[in-house]
Amino acid sequence: MSKSLLISLVFAALCCLGLAYVGKNDPSAGGGLFPRCMFHHATDLYCPGCGGTRAAHALANFRIGEAFRQNLLLMTLAALFVWAAGLKTLAGLSRRSYRGPSFRFPVVAAYFLPLVVVLFWVLRNIPGWPFELLAPR
């Protein structure tokens, strides 16, 4: 087993354990060791991560629609990450016999992703429809 495959599998196991913990402890009810968002507490505005823990809780309890309503950007990026990590792990498990699709992170995304995060941050704090749909609810 290659070192990168081992790291991928350990990371996946840790993610599953973390998701199980979040799924068992409802952050909305004050369960678990979840910190409050200091940015939201200080400014009453939503940061790009606001609703992320509640989204993970909903995802762990198979409420996919609710998870996307809590934090659309985080859930979209998580889905892309799981897809890419799955392809990478599948390629690592099958070694040279793997002929399926692969995922490479484009360099332009390193510049584009921070802009998307800032745009999401600004848009989710604009009152009124349709921007209020981006706020955690």
Explain what this protein looks like in three dimensions:
The chain has 137 residues and is mainly α. The chain is built from six helices and no strands. Helix 1 packs across helix 3 (52-60) and helix 1 (3-24) runs antiparallel to helix 5 (72-94). It starts with a helix and ends in a 14-residue tail after the last helix. The mean pLDDT is 86.
Provide a compact summary of the structure.
The chain is mainly alpha-helical and 137 residues long. It contains six helices and no strands. 61% of the residues lie in helices and 0% in strands.
Number of helices: 6
Q: What does the largest sheet look like?
A: none
Shape estimate? globular
Percent helix: 55-70%
Poorly predicted runs of 5 or more residues: none
What is the distance, rounded to the nearest whole angstrom, between the alpha carbons of the first and last residues? 44 Å
Radius of gyration: 17 Å
Order of helices and strands: HHHHHH
- Average pLDDT, rounded to a whole number, is 86
Task: State the secondary-structure class.
Answer: mainly alpha
Report the β-strand fraction as a percent range: under 5%
Tell me how many strands there are: 0
